[in-house]
Amino acid sequence: MIIAAVDPNASAASALAAALGGTEHRLAWSVRTGAEALRRHQAQPVDVLLLSADVRDLSAAEITRQILARGQCAIILLAETSGAGLSNVYDAMGAGAQDVVPPPRADLRGRVSGAEPLLAKLRTAGRLLGHSPEKASTRLAFAPVKGAVPIVAFGASTGGPQALLTVLSGLPRPFSGAILIVQHVDSEFSQGFATWLEEGSGIPVRLARDGHVPEPGTALLASSEDHLVMTSSGSLRYRAEPRDLPHRPSVDVLFTSLAEHQKPPGIAVLLTGMGRDGAEGMRKLRAAGWHTIAQDQASCVVYGMPKAAAQLNAAIKVLALPLIAQEISDQVKRVRGT
Description:
This protein has helices at about 10-20, 35-45, 60-70, 85-95, 115-130, 160-170, 190-200, 250-260, 280-285, 305-310, 320-335, and strands at about 1-5, 25-30, 50, 75-80, 100, 105, 110-115, 145, 150-155, 180-185, 205, 220, 225-230, 235-240, 260-265, 265-270, 290-295, 315-320. By secondary structure, it is α/β, with parallel strands linked by helices.
């Protein structure tokens, strides 16, 4: 793929170039400011833009919006896993950045560390952009179990952070549903993302752990490279299989396990995102009696995952983002009354 980089730090830019050297990717250009990036991308578009969260002349969110307005481009943010700048990272993801990863580093001898996580993100971006086949095998073998708490399960990718924040902020308090979230974001950034969601929405957001049982009024966020699943005991687990999916964790895998295990049916929501993850799982949930909602095209940053669900007739309702919270509230009340 053709790659470009935006990083104000010259040594960081050199480490990026070294990390990409010897791979199938070509670094077409590298600049230090957002304004330069917008000019260069206008003249020489690329497949993937590696965007440092440290760029200061324009916000990462504004750069993301302007780049995506010009056509298809996967934007991967480069940021450290802690610090005051993480809110800028999630703002940019809400604007359409696909993912975030710590930047590679070079020592005084020029040896690069931390390249593999970046290369893994590029492989995923390539699959979503059509540079390699996207496989999807989500067959799991579970037996159903009855659960007492209405589950509200979210799947989101590109543009998802802001969409999730909008929906969670609109839910009633106290909220009687138990929330599960799969957002395509690097596991190293999941704790910061959970904190950002909780502070912005007022809903308690915790990282999902093995053995967690969903609780009313709390959101559990997938926080591993493995897939989050509901088990026959009614608790959550992480599982490595299937290994060949472009996203880890996968929305499809969570939705499929819920379809097979979680009774009474709950509510599943598929928000903005590139690719098809979640569509097939949502189809299974609808067949199992769940109320399924997909975000509409006009309010999506990327109308990929919800579009795939609509094409499969997996979504009972296709709604604008501002209407989804009320629909969830109404359906939770219905489920609890049955």
